[in-house]
Design a protein that fits this description.
The protein has one helix at residues 48-56, and strands at residues 2-4, 13-21, 24-32, 37-39, 63-68, 71-75, 80-81. Helices cover 9% and strands 38% of the residues. It has one helix and seven strands. Strand 2 and strand 3 form a beta hairpin.
Length: 97
């Protein structure tokens, strides 16, 4: 799983948020600079898919903020949430047997 801020574009991603669901608590704090490539790796249940789902708008942050190119997608302090279809971000699911 990964997120690519394509070289040559002036795209940046900033995430500073928390997701709480039942007994699961995920905190994500990262900045992806233009031209960078980020690989999200980890054990099963560590929050990889949840992180990508928050970027795509399939899950909302419990607290915090997500922005792409200074465009705020999710901000719990202002109750701003951009719907997935208006973000211009896609998630490609991994196929399995």
């Amino acid at each position: 799983m990964g997120f690519c801020v394509t070289s040559g574009w002036t795209m940046s991603l900033e995430i500073d948020c928390q997701l709480q669901r039942d007994k699961f608590n995920l905190e994500v704090h990262l900045t992806v600079a233009p031209g960078s490539v980020l690989a999200i790796t980890g054990e099963n249940g560590s929050g990889k898919t949840s992180t990508l789902d928050m970027i795509a708008g399939l899950l909302a942050c419990t607290t915090g903020k997500i922005s792409l190119n200074d465009r705020v997608f999710d901000d719990s302090t202002t109750n701003q949430f951009v719907q997935p279809e208006k973000r211009g971000v896609s998630t490609v699911f991994q196929g399995g047997g």
